[in-house]
Design goal:
Layout lengths: L4 E6 L5 E4 L12 E2 L1 E7 L1 H7 L7 E11 L2 E10 L2 E8 L3 E6 L15 E9 L2 E8 L5 E6 L4 E5 L4 E7 L5 E6 L5 E7 L11
Parallel strand pairs: 3-12
Antiparallel strand pairs: 1-2, 2-8, 4-5, 5-6, 6-7, 7-8, 9-10, 10-13, 11-12, 11-14, 14-15
Length: about 200
């Protein structure tokens, strides 16, 4: 049984970023988040979402992103009559967002737009989930302490996992030629430095 604790924000879907603290193996900080194609539909995809819904079916493993906490898988499936999308890292950390029965998980961001759809924390790491419009190819994110991260996107989806002590991110959308699109958006400070009393 997975022991998840809901800690953060619910945005355009009914999903939330969730976490479990303690004991996760982590690697070194990374500054580029590249997307690899997933394995598609089938038993491997079904196994990824087991335990994340009462009756998952038709799972499709869309993509995988290497992170300091392990591979994050992006998978879509059906649960309780509605489409769901999960961003999962093993049993330790992830998020699942589901539309209402009969609803759609279609993009919420305008063509040049960028949304932060979830923010959460596990141990000393913060995770920021991003949704972007069709003209956005990648993002550049600058933490409060000046550290810069980059993420390419898959079907308008992206993720950045970084040390929480670096604070919130200012995230700039970029088109395919690395030209900025619109104004940066700021992530929620969940996981940022805790002020001294």
């Amino acid at each position: 049984m997975r022991a998840f604790l809901v800690v953060a924000l619910c945005w355009t879907l009914t999903g939330c970023v969730v976490m479990r603290s303690g004991g996760i193996e982590s690697g070194p900080e990374q500054f580029m988040f590249e997307v690899r194609p997933g394995s598609g539909p089938g038993p491997d995809a079904d196994a990824l979402v087991e335990g994340h819904g009462q009756s998952p079916e038709d799972a499709d493993h869309l993509a995988t992103v290497a992170t300091p906490l392990g591979d994050l898988t992006i998978v879509e499936f059906t649960d309780q009559g509605g489409p769901c999308r999960g961003m999962l890292i093993g049993d330790a950390f992830g998020s699942v967002g589901c539309a209402a029965p009969g609803g759609d998980l279609g993009p919420s961001a305008p063509p040049d737009g960028l949304l932060v759809t979830g923010v959460g924390q596990i141990d000393d790491w913060a995770m920021v989930e991003i949704e972007a419009g069709e003209n956005v190819a990648s993002v550049v994110a600058t933490a409060e302490d000046g550290r810069v991260y980059r993420s390419d996107l898959f079907d308008g989806l992206g993720v950045i996992i970084y040390p929480a002590e670096r604070g919130e991110l200012s995230i700039q959308a970029m088109d395919a030629s690395a030209t900025p699109l619109g104004a940066p958006v700021v992530s929620d400070p969940v996981g940022g430095p805790v002020p001294e009393p």
